[in-house]
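If you are new to this repository, start here. Below is one unmodified record pulled from the training split, so you can see the exact layout before writing a loader.
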Amino acid sequence: MADEDNTQSDQEMQDTSSIADEDNTQTGQEIQNLVMKLDEHYANLEQKRQVFENSIGSEIEVLNKDQNEARKLRHSLLYGSDDISSNLEAASQNIANVKQWLNENTLDSEDEEDQG
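And here is the target side for that same chain:
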């Protein structure tokens, strides 16, 4: 009878151990699946961040270009029109160019602000 108790006790321990092993395996697989999902999500976030970074970088380049063009036009108005009377046609053309540039760039800026 003692042998039967020991055998039954050993069987129960093996069953408990087997259940624990299955639980550990399931938990380990669940952890691996979650880690894979987190890795995929992180990769997607990184990809989106890169897209935004590239987009912002190109927008900054456009803004810098527009600022440089505005400085050049300002300079040409201030210092290229010193002697307006001797070169009225050039001064008028310069003014027309600046007005056109301002109209084009001001409209673009207003459209972006309306969308934002």
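Two things worth knowing about this chain: The CA atoms of residues 97 and 103 lie 10 Å apart. The mean pLDDT is 79.
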